[in-house]
C-alpha cells in the first residue's frame, strides 16, 4: 500500500509538472504558487486549532486527542489509497489496459531518485554514528 501511495504522489507530481509555467510570466506564477502554499499552511494551522477547540467543546479530554488523531489519520490514509486507486484507473491506465510510456518513465526515474536519496541518508547516518 505504501508503494501505491508513493506512486500516486509521483503521478500527481508528474501531472503538476506539466502545468508549470514557462516564459515571461514565470515569476508571477511562482509568486502565486508561493502565496497559495503560504495560505495553505496558514489554513492547516487554523484547521488544527479549530479541531482542537471542537474536541474540547464536545467534552473529550486531552487524553483522548491522540487516539482521535490516529483514527483520523488512518481514515485519511485509507481515503487517499482509494482516491489513488481511482486516479490510477482513470489517468494512468489507457483504454486497452496499457500504461502510458511517459508516466512509466517518470515513475521509474522518480523511484530511482528516491532510492538513491534514501541510500545517501542511511550512509550519512551510519557515518555520523561511527564518529560518535
Describe this structure in words.
With 132 residues, the chain is an all-alpha fold. The protein folds into three domains: 25-59; 62-92; 98-132. Helices cover 83% and strands 0% of the residues. The protein has helices spanning 2-18, 26-58, 65-92, 101-131. It starts with a helix and ends with a helix. 1% of the residues are buried.
Layout of strands and helices, then pairs:
Elements lengths: L1 H17 L7 H33 L6 H28 L8 H31 L1
Entry summary:
Helix content is 83%, strand content 0%.
Helical residue percent? Answer: over 70%
* Low-confidence regions: none
Number of structurally distinct domains: 3
**Quick one: how many beta strands?**
0
Q: Span from first to last CA?
A: 37 Å
Cα Rg: 20 Å
Transmembrane segments: 28-47, 68-86
Family: Belongs to the NEMP family.
Subcellular location: Nucleus inner membrane
Membrane topology: Multi-pass membrane protein
Keywords:
single chain; 132 residues; mainly alpha; 3 domains; 83% helix
Amino acid at each position: 500500500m505504501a508503494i501505491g501511495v508513493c506512486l500516486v504522489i509521483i503521478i500527481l507530481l508528474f501531472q503538476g509538472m506539466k502545468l508549470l509555467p514557462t516564459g515571461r510570466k514565470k515569476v508571477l506564477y511562482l509568486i502565486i504558487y508561493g502565496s497559495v502554499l503560504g495560505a495553505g499552511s496558514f489554513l492547516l494551522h487554523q484547521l488544527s486549532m479549530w479541531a482542537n477547540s471542537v474536541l474540547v467543546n464536545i467534552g473529550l479530554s486531552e487524553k483522548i486527542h491522540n487516539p482521535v488523531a490516529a483514527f483520523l489519520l488512518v481514515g485519511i490514509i485509507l481515503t487517499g489509497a482509494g482516491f489513488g486507486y481511482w486516479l490510477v484507473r482513470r489517468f494512468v491506465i489507457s483504454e486497452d489496459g496499457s500504461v502510458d510510456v511517459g508516466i512509466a518513465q517518470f515513475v521509474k526515474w522518480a523511484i530511482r531518485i528516491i532510492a538513491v536519496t534514501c541510500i545517501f541518508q542511511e550512509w550519512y547516518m551510519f557515518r555520523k554514528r561511527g564518529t560518535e
